[in-house]
TrEMBL record:
Assembly, per entry: Homodimer, forms a heterotetramer with a Cas2 homodimer.
Keywords, alphabetical: Antiviral defense, DNA-binding, Endonuclease, Hydrolase, Magnesium, Manganese, Metal-binding, Nuclease
EC numbers: 3.1.-.-
Tagged with keyword Iron: no
Cofactor(s) needed for function: Mg(2+); Mn(2+)
Function: CRISPR (clustered regularly interspaced short palindromic repeat), is an adaptive immune system that provides protection against mobile genetic elements (viruses, transposable elements and conjugative plasmids). CRISPR clusters contain spacers, sequences complementary to antecedent mobile elements, and target invading nucleic acids. CRISPR clusters are transcribed and processed into CRISPR RNA (crRNA). Acts as a dsDNA endonuclease. Involved in the integration of spacer DNA into the CRISPR cassette.
Protein name: CRISPR-associated endonuclease Cas1
Gene assigned in the entry: cas1
């Protein structure tokens, strides 16, 4: 598995092929990134495989046998993603044989809420931080922050699953109402496409989900076995769990984009009472969320790595990672 030395000495290399015609090839044992300019190829950078922790390719590209062979030799995780960051190809040599981790996941009791409460705690903590970053002093924001504080105090005493979900939902309702009070907020309605802001958040959360999945795969987790979200057909419950503390990144990016007029209701069409983002605007929306998440790629990797170590080591919840927004 990946160590602290790997993080210090190696990097996650992201190749953006969404807007540029680029190619990767192996030359003299190094990774070469090239870009087509007319009939010519221009070398953008060279990178030794020894310095690579993972190679993320976003967009359409050809992956060659020598590239996969070098990634295998040097233990580089290779992830190829669509423009919406959905992984279409994943390979990591170190993750394939980690049966002990998957055994531990299936043995974990659904009655144990300790890790689930840690995840919800981190989510509420970041919701409070996001509200504080707005610097608003109106009654909605002040009340929402107070409710976050009260919930954080109450959380350790929660001992029932439905009670935990209820507490999270109550805080989220107040948080969204205060955070998007100037955006004509009418409630969170996932996948219903009832208004522009909800559709935008759905897009952002989907991109976050796909990005998080790539990191979780690097450690060999069974994506369908979570600690908070329960087993459900085709639902990657663990990804749903670990993305919770990072949702604030998407919330903040969406708020800033609407305030700066990067996002607008004009970018959507209304079809049968459902809002749909215009095709020509998809790249602009993807780019806003993509830039925010790529800037946090090492934070996300370290979070998943620390979660893996704590989970495998059956450590106290006090040692589980906390992402600070």
């Amino acid at each position: 598995m990946f160590t602290h030395k790997d993080i210090e000495m190696r990097t996650i290399f992201v190749v953006n092929c969404i807007e540029h015609d680029r190619s990767l090839r192996v030359n003299s044992g190094e990774l070469m990134l090239e870009e087509f300019e007319g009939d010519k190829k221009k070398t953008l950078t060279k990178f030794p495989f020894q310095k690579l922790l993972a190679l993320f390719i976003i967009g359409h590209i050809t992956v060659t046998t020598p590239l996969i062979d070098k990634c295998k030799k040097y233990g580089v995780a290779l992830v190829v993603m669509k423009p919406n960051l959905r992984p279409v190809f994943f390979w990591a040599n170190s993750a394939e044989a980690n049966y002990l981790l998957r055994k531990r996941q299936f043995e974990y009791s659904t009655e144990d809420l300790s890790i689930a409460k840690c995840i919800v705690y981190n989510k509420m903590l970041n919701q409070k931080a996001a509200l504080a970053k707005t610097r608003k002093k109106d009654s909605y924001t002040v009340d929402a922050i107070k409710q976050c504080d009260a919930a954080l105090v109450t959380l350790p005493d929660v001992d029932e699953y439905n009670q935990l979900m209820g507490l999270e939902g109550t805080v989220a309702k107040t948080y969204f109402s205060a955070y998007y009070q100037n955006q004509n907020w009418r409630g969170r309605h996932p996948r219903m496409k009832s208004d522009v802001l909800n559709v935008t958040l759905d897009i952002g959360y989907s991109i976050l989900f796909n990005f998080m999945e790539s990191f979780i795969r690097m450690f060999g987790f069974d994506l369908y076995v979570g600690v908070y979200h329960r087993l459900w057909f085709k639902r990657k419950s663990l990804v749903c769990d670990l993305m919770e503390p990072f949702r604030c990144i998407i919330d903040h990016a969406a708020l800033l984009a609407f305030n700066r007029k990067q996002f607008s209701e004009k970018d959507f069409t209304l079809i049968k009472q459902e809002y749909h983002l215009k095709y020509e605007k998809c790249a602009d929306y993807y780019r806003v969320f993509y830039d925010e998440l790529i800037a946090r790629k090492m934070d996300i990797f370290k979070f998943v790595q620390q979660y893996y170590r704590c989970f495998m080591g059956c450590k106290s919840v006090k040692e589980y990672p906390i992402f600070e927004f």
